[in-house]
Amino acid sequence: MMLIIINHKYTYECDFPVEVGDKVKLPKGDKWWIGKVTDLESNYTGSVKKVLCFADEEPPVSKLKIHGYRSLDDPWEPSMKE
To answer: pTM of this prediction?
Structure first.
């Protein structure tokens, strides 16, 4: 396991070998987004999420967080209630 930097600012944990320049799928709520590996070492000490897979692969469903509520990562949407 290693801590890598994505897009020069986000730290993620990665369980498989990657190289600088690789594009990977990253978790965002119950979906994912694509980022580029920009560094193979990070000194970040907080909690991190794990890289799902390379960008040209399908992320394993077991790694996606499936839930029925809105995550802090999800975009804000106005309520339809009046």
So the answer is: 0.71
